[in-house]
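__Protein archive entry__

___
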Amino acid sequence: MAVSTGSKILNNVEAVRETLYEAMKNDERTVILGEDVGARGNVFLITKDFINEFGEQRVIDTPIAEASIVGIAIGMAMEGLRPIAEIQFADFIYPAFNQIVGEAAKTRYRSNGEYTCPLVIRTPYGGGVRGALSHSVSIEALFYHVPGLKIVAPAFPADIKGLLNAAIDDPDPVLFLEHKKTYRLIKGEVPEGHYTIPIGKADVKKTGNQLTVVSYGLYVHWALDAAQQLEAEGLSVEVIDLRSIRPMDRTTILQSVEKTRKLLIIHEDNKFGGIGAEISAMVAEEALFSLDAPIRRLCAPDVPAMGYAEPLEHEYMSSPAKMAQAMREMVTF
């Protein structure tokens, strides 16, 4: 990790932009490709003016063809470039499923280490913006089962920069998830200069001793709001931000559960087969006799998608109030 000379306040989308800009500036092998990343500068203006500085050979506007975006990026990666492929919204990633799962994730294994695939696939995900069926999905559980693929979902600006740098440096493919509702909502201090945060290392955002809460993305912020509310009631909740979904920091989770003896897992994706199911199984296998209460998951209902109507979106998603109630029930169980 390089030593930073200072820091500044950025929101999440600015942290993404700054990290990408520095990567492009510092390494000519870095290439960005995706829909509207060039002349338009991305739908969130993350790559605005990049094409003017770095040119069309390194900032590549692609057709609306996700399979081609990822497939071409895989070829670039295997030939020595450092491609950063953007899927405009996570909901559009399905056409590239074979390229990600069948090609990128298997590159090192099937070549016996002769080839690697240093590819980053960035995409905004999640709800809370009235995006309806095609702009609100959480995709992490669909790819979580795949060995050879790392999945990162940071929630804070400093974590975004450190983990995106780590993803760009990584010799294997990384799916980098950015919760779109946090883009301009969340601000924080970000070190200047190049630094990395190890992929696979969680962060305890708030310490406590009566309940462990594990989450990631937007829901970390809401969980912290809820935990602070309970703090005022005299209840102590520890909040862990996974940051990396795969690999997962099992040690931090288990150490916290052994201390608090209770576990609540909160995520925006569907409950059935979600990340919470794996965490629950891991804790049940390795720390069952440390528990004083059943593990609980607070997740999305098992319906196909998030509705557009505000009441439907509100019902689908959690909230600080829902989280506080679940925490309260767990602590007083």
